[in-house]
Batch of 4 targets.
Target 1
Amino acid sequence: MKTVIQDILNLIKGNIPFAVATILSHSGSTPRTAGTKMLILADGTIRGTIGGGLVEAQVIKKGQELIGLKKNVLLDFNLNQDLKESLDMICGGAITVFIDTTAGEQIGLYQKIAQEMGDRKRCMLVSELSGTKDGTLALNQCLITDSFGVIGKNLVPESFSDDLLKTHFTKNAPVITTFGNRKITYEPIPATGTVFIFGAGHVSQKVAELTALLDLPTVIIDDRKEFANGERFNRAEGIHVIDDFSDPFGTLDVTPSSFIIILTRGHLHDQTVLRGALKTPARYIGMIGSKQKRDRIYDNLMEEGISGTRLKTVYSPIGMEILAETPAEIAVSIVSELIAVKNRK
């Protein structure tokens, strides 16, 4: 999402016409899920994808037609047998795609979204879609910030309770509601979770390469400057060389969107980091090692008063079981597990 928002801002600043295609809802088996975005330029160039195949081709064509007209539409696709064959994929669901050609007029809104994401905060884009005589849709939008402030005209119906709004805010996919001839969509934009990697060895290096591909800001923490440096981790957002692991979190800003990966060079260091990690609200905590090593560390921590229930939330041995052996393979298994947690609805 961070890349999409930045692309939108770059296109606006470059005065380049474009459309935004967003999957608002999906059911059954579909190539991509609700919330997925793709940018369409007038020449048919795209940034991102909503799944490829015939659906994407039709969305691109429609987007090109509408860009010059500054009109917006909702498109419904049923992935029936005929369409499945054209898509060359086994699907049996349905998706609704919204094509917005007026995003270029909303630079202030997207700048605020970028700011919220940069501050590691969630926000929610609220869109009011109302029908016009030619079948296209008029669009009004506002942004609900992390503190529930409103940027733009408040489009949330008065009948909505605070609890219902908060429920929509914390979802991982858009919600569509209908009020008369208006559709109002609530599109949560999740905070970009920082990946904190403790340990700067060979596996950590490969993990950091993969998290960079996923646009996940990554911070490396180790007590060895010969390992934790910009030459080995040239795409890391931050590198912290600490004196020792006695206080591994220090001033780190660990939030409920953060991911903690424990890959230090020793069991005692892993235990120390895990002890600190369990005090944080991190969404994911994973620790490398065998089951025997894990159980020994867990026993030690339970003797200190940490509950077994809390320890069960840790992903250890870390990573999906793919019989990984090399640092690169282990990194793939770790990041695969991280993706599964991140995308869980």
Target 2
Amino acid sequence: MVPAAAPLTAAALAELVGGRLEGDGSLVLNAVGPLDRAHGAALSFLTSPKYAEAFASSGAGAVLVPEGFQRRGGAGPAVLIVVKDPQRAMAQALTALFPPAPRVGRIDPTARLGRGVRFGCEVVIGPFVEVGDGAVLGDRVTLGPGAVIEPGVQVGSDSELDARVMCYRGTVIGARVRIKAGAVIGGTGFGFVSDRRGHHPIPHVGGCRIGDDVQIGANSCIDRGSIDDTTIGAGTKLDNLVHIGHNAHLGERCLVMGGVVVAGTARIGNDVILAGHSAVGGHFTVGDRARIGAMAGVISEVPAGADFSGFPARPHREFLRAQAALYRLAPIVDKLEAVAEERS
């Protein structure tokens, strides 16, 4: 369990999440935890009927449950908060129970600020940070230890860059962006002209533009464009270890899971989901609201709203049929071998 920083009564929490309270509203919720480990006055949540057994034996003080949930024989915690979406309600509850610490702007004495740097109010600049000439930091920007902001980079208000984040020249970061530790933004892309003498790098003179409310995971890399900008649309979330190639364009509100690779000049629409370790080849387009399955390899155009999986990626139902046919081959081969042995 995790102790809450700002305990709330069950009644206050029900009002906050727009839920219906069943039980003692005066119960003060002072911790959170999963159903099987929560006890005392801790808050937990139930997302699926498959956890009904864990609910019945849970010692939690109160539980967020979905509409239509039915107790079995009165078992389980006495206080329920009935909501439409327990997971969403739990996110709201966590925000209230664990408010951020009061913010105090400060610049560590070990930080190095270039000429003409502009920054807003309540900026936090950590130890050994380097901010290049002419960089612009908006209000309440946080730069973690060892972060490097090259000359001319712009970082929007309320954005947070964790330890050792690297932002190269030509990078523009929107408001409320979170970039986790070790990410590299706006580095030179992987582009070469080859001949008999070897591989000669193509100059990358484009930039890298990150929209508002974007999250970029730890150790992810987003290359700058060659003669265009690489762009990440507003509200898109990237997991850890994601690579976005030069000139790629990701739309708004995309979800990009861990280990995904998007090659140069690919076009990803709005509200696209790229599952873990999938890859999109260069110059291909993935339409709005498409979903790409885990470890899929996209080497063709993907229509809007389509579900693709497998390698090479194809419509999901087609992939499942192909896999089912492949698995049926094994017993057929066994029978053929048995017939061949009988005739030999």
Target 3
Amino acid sequence: MTTPPAPVEYAVAVDHYLATLRLTEASRRVYRIALASWTWPLVRRAAPPGRARRGAAAPIVPLALLDAPDAADRLADALAWRAAVADPRTVSRELSILRGAVTWWRTRGWVRGDPLARLRAPATPRAAPRGLSPEQVAAIFDLPAGLREQACWRLVYETAAPVERLLALNVDDLDLVRRRLRADPGVRWGPGAARLLPLLLVGRSQGPVFLARRRASPGTPVRDRCPVTGRGRLSYRRAAELFTTATRPLDPDGHGWTLRRLRAAGVAHRSGEGRGPSGGAVPA
């Protein structure tokens, strides 16, 4: 089989690479966003921050720039900047996606060198994330965020359960009267989540507790789609992004906090190491 000539544009090379992968629609979109995000540093421009990065039109970049003498330095700078503002797991995933694409392009002869040879993903911290103070937690709950976000944050803090588990909940998993999960009564929440969850779930008795803003794609499993609104389940990546963006004004470093830190604060408060943001102990 004859190898086609190298495409001129990076975006076209991305299309060829993604066509070889067996991905869901959602995963393909994640891959495309991740690969597009590396185009800005190749032309010495900063990628749009936060949510704006997902919908921004990436610059037109010649694929040959990956073989430029300073391509490795540009990508290293971009990796360092990204590592300063994003979760290490997110950065590692984005670098891994680019590495897979570059490896495939090199096997086709479209890229000669390896601009990623010196790049290493940031180390994922093994220690438990540092929690937030009661004053910081109180400031979070005072933010002018939407009902979905406030209910999610309250549930994370008051249950101290893994965020992924909470986002995977469906409406019928909740015992709203007893403030606990039906299948696991040990996961309980306090008055904050108890006040917000019924408001969030008005008119819904099935489907995901936390919904994305967009309608679900046709291939979305029934469990991950609301039968009333047709919207899909809120993803961890989007929930984390929303929280970090919302808390950026509260963070002295200006980066924003992570949901893992909010959960760590909940763990500490539930175990008696701290007190709730209102001055009382967080209910067990």
Target 4
Amino acid sequence: MSNLRAAVIGVGYLGRFHAQKYAALEGVDLVGVVDANAQRAREVADEVGVAAFDDYRQILDRTDIVSIAVPTQYHHTVAKACLLAGCHILLEKPITQTVEEAEELIAIAADKGLVFQVGHLERFNPAVMALKGVLKNPVFIESHRLAPYKPRGTDVNVVLDLMIHDIDILLSMVPSTIKTINSVGVPVLSQEVDIANARLQFENGCVANVTASRVSRDTMRKIRIFQPDAYISIDYQARKIQILRKGSGGIPVPGLPEIGMEERSFGQVDALLEEIRSFVDAVRNGTPPVVSGEEGKRALELALQINRKLWHEVTPS
């Protein structure tokens, strides 16, 4: 089978890493990188040994697969052009600015039989992948995603910048629709909301408490899951999972009768490389992507619902 021709549109902080992964991947020929900043495009192109372009329309007829890592406001325009040109796409999160834009892209991809994957990177964290076969009917979930302030990403608020990762994970864990949303948030260092908390209640009774901050001193990326038979704690950053179960088995927990503990740690894993490899495999094999356009839309939809609640909290009446 011939190599897939790949391109990366938008080679800022994250797009540069996409280009590096494609350049190192077997079965893929990186044919070019694109950035509106011609100097940046040349820098990254020289780094990975490919051609540089400052207009994405210049590469659409010479590529099969495209990673799109432009600012969110351009997601719809660029992704639509790529899909209409017959390119399979990996589109960074959030999928688009509006649900309507996302629905249009999903419809085009379906009509043309193209793979449309959304870049929710946390799905490829080995600690999250280890939940398969362990997660059963969660009743309460609490997550914290805290990070120091960085100007990059502040074109959107913290819900669309950071919390959306956990929103996607939650929606993949709980097979139910949202019943109620309560959320608060405030701007601190930017013009957008920089710290936010949302309490989500699902129709099946599960409750999730989600906190995201991009103005914290230290970095934290953790989620705790409570279900009838177990307590599960995941440290995304350390790639560790801890499971406490009722009944025998595992390491006994002092002071807690009939509770056994299991801990798993995972070595250094390149989640972005795994994400891109899975995208390439989906294109080659004609299989659904790990995170589909539809799932990206669901995460955006919930994030925007949370934002509407935030707006009322931070805007004087």
